[in-house]
Amino acid sequence: MLCRTSEELQALVDEAKRCTVKGKVADYIPALGKANPNDLAVAIHYPNGECTSAGDIEKKFTLQSVSKVITLALVLMDRGPSYVFEKVGMEPTGDPFNSIVKLETMALSKPLNPMINAGALAVTHMIKGDSVKQRLERLLEFVRELTNDSTVFYSEDVSRSEFETAFLNRSLSYFLKQNGIINEDVEELMDLYTKQCAIEMNSLDLARIGVVFAMDGVDPISGKQIIPSDIARICKTFMVTCGMYNASGEFAIKIGIPAKSGVSGGIMAAVPGKFGIGIFGPALNEQGNSIAGIKLLELLSNNYQLSMF
Ligand code: DON
Per the confidence metrics, is the pTM higher than 0.90? Predict the structure, then answer.
């Protein structure tokens, strides 16, 4: 099995870290601009509970778009696939993650998939509950179960920073409201969405989530089916087709592992049947994916033949 020792993994981290200088920390959410571009951490979580890690693994970061796949799993469990996919499509886009263009130009005017911001906003809208507080609490409880960490919470600082500056996400939401995809108050949706994106954890926790997806929704330690296997399968398929935004095709060819990235520099990867990977590297490439994180996954995939294709 791969990288049994932290030393082995550390050598790959050192190699991947060289490309952080070519990346840039996201600062369109001002609080994210405080991250250190040189950071790189990785954890690998095996189904038997063993974990190998390297880099600054205790460092916490916010999930940002990684939360989209988790929220999708919860909403599919809440509502079922036919309800969800009536309002959000299943097709990849070649556009940036925050693009508005397809909402206007597509005849059906529903978001193309749940991994772009427009689709994720529609999915967050579907979280069941009587109030933003209750919907957020349900999502947090789900994340706590996936990470097996009852202390998981969101960063007040990052959520506020995004809430105060999310003009494009507000525009997307009003578009969705105009087209009947959502019907709630946009400020309430922004409140919930920005808190969802600001859920905080370290790369060990993220690898723990990855291994649940890798094992078709089963908690590797307790054996509990946390996510029904058909829903875990849908989520992993979106991770392959849309998880790295408009770089998903290249990622599938070069790396071939279901993965989801976020602008904080987090990447959650699930190697089917094998293990989960959690990465944090805040220096991003042009598509908003962790530049060193992708390099690291490429090294892992090539060295250990991890591509599923
Ligand atoms: O909605 C946003 O713009 C952020 N909260 C999340 C975007 C994101 O992580 C895109 N990822 N690569």
Answer: yes
